[in-house]
Amino acid sequence: MPRAMDAFEYRDGALTCEGVLLSDIADAVGTPVYVYSHRTLIEHLERLRAAFALQATDPLICFSVKSLPNVEILKRLVAHGAGLDIVSGGELHRARLAGVDPARCVYAGVGKTDDEISAALRAGIGLFNIESEAEFENLASLASRERKIARAALRINPDVDPRTHRYTTTGKRETKFGVDLDRARAFFRAADGVESVRLTGLHLHIGSPVYDPAPYREAVTRTVSLMDAIESDHRGRIFETLDVGGGFGADYETGQSPALAEYAEAIAAPLRSRTAAGLRLILEPGRMIAANAGVLLVRVVYTKQSGERQFVICDAGMNALLRPALYSAFHFIWPAEVAPAFVPPRRGRDVDLPGLVLCDVVGPLCESGDFLGEARRLPPVARGDLLAVHAAGAYGMSMANRYNSSPLPAEVLVRDGEATLIRSRESFADLTAHERAAVLDGVGARDPVPAGERS
Ligand code: LLP
What we know:
This protein is α/β, with parallel strands linked by helices.
């Protein structure tokens, strides 16, 4: 079984999604536009479930909202049995609109505010993933004020190296996430006797993307020893849940990620006796489900030769897709319509066909770091051509921004040969909608500025 699948393929030289021509979508809604494949999203969710079923484990799969937060996407994943992993009040709002059962939501994040926690308590969120002693105390007092009993898991920091980008490494001791293993035992001792929070689980997330299953095995093995130690400290305490987070790889290049069965085995094997005894495993995948389910379509505005370099200047760059500028991330880029000789045999840095031209694919913004792809070999492109930036479904639209006053892109979902606009392109009026002057009553200099000195 292929590792990651997606429904974007060339037919007669034209890129399609589930049979729909991407050029038709671009003509209908303009560019930049994100296009998602429903079939890919759902199939990835089901493949992950199947991989764990082979390990006799039935995890609660909480899709990581931050990776692809469009409510219409969330609704469809929820309809296929996904819970949701949220990290903010804004994501709670989206989860509610998506109609998910709140009991199937987990809530992580190092900086949950009082308002966010209270809203999540009132919504009946299934599990708070606690990141610090201070947050635990705060949750306890807010829960007793709301007359609720919160269910919580302690996020631990297993100090394993996921061997990924420094910015997305989260399970190393020096990061801000979770509580060190040696502090976790003391944490549980202090939590005993707190009535408004039931601390029933552990949570970890080592980083993202993690292409090697070994760090998962190591982190879970360390966690199981910690569970044993805590249970022996506290007679009667039995862990009910273990949330191992997300971070499973996606195919930015064809065949890049390991088979899901390898992740499932690495995670499930050290837990075998615990899951058999009723421990519920929770997963928080984002990228693995969404990345290969989406492409970003941009149009070439100009091409330009500058010294030795050939620039392909597009109508969107780091505003629509920040990952190349922020992490030097690789996204395969190719024209959406090509001569038969230029249909790419696979996606990767090393695709080489006769006649390719070396170029930098850049955006229109006033930053030298505004690129979608550096030093790429592409078929010759011209002004007006449509380019597809692949594997952009996760952390694409969710990290898009309005820099240089760029309206946010549109989003389209394709399902069974039908395309639906699920987010319209922002207008210029949207850009300035919140920019209205309103003098703040009750806020002003203690010594009022004399009328004659005002600017
Ligand atoms: N759970 C927790 C606690 C997380 O912090 C994350 C991602 C996930 C789950 C989902 O990870 P995934 O399965 O999607 O890899 N902006 C970066 C990724 C940052 C990930 C942050 N946390 C990127 O564009 O690669």
